[in-house]
Every structure is written in C-alpha cells, then in structure tokens.
Amino acid sequence: MSIEQPPKPVTYWDYVGTDALLDLQKPLTDAHDEMQFIVVHQAFELWFKLAIYELRGAIAALDSSDVATGSRLLKRVSCILRTALLGFDPLITMTQQGYAEFRNALRPASGFQSAQFRMIEILIGIPRVTGSDGNERFYWESAVQAGVTFTHFMEKYHQQLLAMYEETRDRSLRHVMLRVTEAATGHVGADAYRHLFNHRDQFHELTSLAETARDLQQAMLDFRLHHHKVTVFTVGEHAAGTSDAHTGNHPSCAGYLLGVIRDRSTLFPELEEALGGAQAGDRG
Question: Helix, strand, or coil here: 266?
Fold first, then answer.
C-alpha cells in the first residue's frame, strides 16, 4: 500500500518565481550602468502588465454599470503608473558618459518598441488617425521613419495591437465611460459631462469617475514627462536615441517625446471639452 506524500509546501521563491525573475538580466557589455538600465525597464514592463490587467477590470466593471468598482480600479491604475515612473529616478543618476558606454550595443532597440505601453493607450481609447491616403493608422505609424526599429516592432506586434484596437473600438475606457454617463444624464458627448458637472449632487459616483479618469490622464502625462526628462539628462536634448528612426531630418529622441507630449496628452476629449465650459451653465 502506497503512502501519500504530503504536498510540497509553498515557498516564497517558487510562488514569486524569484530564480527565474533574477535570471532575466542579460547585459550585453561590461558597462556598470547597464544592469540598472535593464532592471528598471523590466520593472516598467511588469507595472505595465499590471496596469493593463486593472484597466481591463475597470472597463468590464463599467460595462456592467458597476461605477464604484470601475472608479476604484482606475484609481489603482493611476497609482501603478505613478509607482512605475519612480523608476526614472535611478536612471537620472546615470550620466551621459555612463549611458554612452553601452548604448551602441542596444541599437536599433528602443523604448519605442514597448508594446504594452501601446496597449494601455489602446485600452484607454486613443483613436487611430486617417492618413492622406485615406487609411487608418496608429499615430506612431506616421510619427517615425520606417527603419529597422519600426519594422521589427511592426512585424512582432502590429497584428496583436490591431486586434486589440478592433476588440475595444467601442469598449475602450473612453467609450464605456462616456456611454454610462450619457445613459445617466440623457445627454450626448461633451454635453453629458457638462450636465454631470453642473448637477454633481445628483451624480456622485459618475462625478467621482470622471475626476478619477482625469487623474489617470495626468498620471499618463506625468510618465511621459519623466521619460522626457531622463532622456534629456542621459542622452541629451538634441541627441538621437538608439532607434534608427531618430536620424536625418527626424527629431532627436527628446524632441520626439516632447512632440508626443504636446499632441497626445488629452485622453478624454469629451470630458476636457465639457470642463472648458462646465461653469458656463447647462445646455438644456
């Protein structure tokens, strides 16, 4: 008769996967600062994974008209992004000389190739833009020169990102949040948010949701601003990055990031439009 063996006890290192996690750092050079660079960017990707998970949860809750849960999970996403951006603090201690010791080994890899950050944008609700040829594109498809960096990114992630966009076209955070607000207020588009803010005593949960969404918008902007800041410090304001897209007539790495900040900071246009005239009185 066989004797059953007691189940193997759960250990911290197995549960978290410590050994596998700590084996993922593979520097390409002997430069001292490269280990920090890798660890920080791996941490970014882990935080992005969690933000995507919570964003999906928030959207599902709002799609089921559970505004309280949706708002709570959105607050968590903002917290995650603000925790992630603290990773820029150790990076900014790295000098341009320190980065220069290993940056050429990275070419043509670039932070531009972070698909998870694109997924966060898609889940929030960035629209695709129509080009001069009448075809829809993600904004990043026309923002950079089609070099090796861009080609590799498109080959690996374009179909996945396109599928996510089609899946969430009418179920992104922006659209679901607006739909819930329109249903509650009886108004459409920016007028729904305008009515909401002019009658906030009647719509406590939805007003809190709108304010939480604006805080998420600010958290995304803060992340971009910190990225730009560390790029200026460690690469230089006018220097090209490791991407082959930032060469020739194209802007520097810092210049490219600044352009994205300028053009992509508003994530909830209907909400921002309403707040621009919310105190002027309700239209109807």
Answer: coil
| pLDDT grade for 140, boundaries at 50, 70 and 90 | confident
Whole-angstrom distance, CA of residue 35 vs CA of residue 2 = 50
Is residue 146 in some structural domain?
yes
27-61: pLDDT as tens digits: 999 999 999 999 999 999 999 999 999 999 999 99
- Provide the phi-psi class of 253: left if phi over 0, else alpha when psi is between -120 and 50, else beta: alpha
Tokens of 64: 């089921």
**For 15-31, what is the mean pLDDT?**
97
What span, in angstroms and rounded, lies between the C-alpha atoms of 182 and 176? 10
> What CATH number should be reported for the domain holding residue 180?
1.20.58.480
What is the DSSP secondary structure assignment for residue 129, as one 8-state letter?
E
CB distance 203 to 184 below 8 Å: yes
Identify the residue whose tokens are 């994974």: 49
For the chain, the domain total comes to 1
Beta strand 129-130 pairing with 136-137: antiparallel
Question: What is the C-alpha separation between 214 and 221, in angstroms, rounded?
Answer: 11
Give the model's pLDDT for residue 193.
98
DSSP 8-state secondary structure symbol assigned to residue 88: H
Please indicate, yes or no, if residue 9 is contained in any of the structural domains. Answer: no
Helices (H), the chain: 12-16, 18-22, 34-63, 67-84, 88-91, 96-106, 115-124, 139-143, 148-168, 173-185, 190-198, 204-234, 253-263, 269-276
Identify whether the C-beta of residue 120 lies closer than 8 Å to the C-beta of residue 48: yes
pLDDT at 279: 42
- Note the pTM of the prediction, 2 decimals: 0.91
What is the domain range of residue 216? 30-280
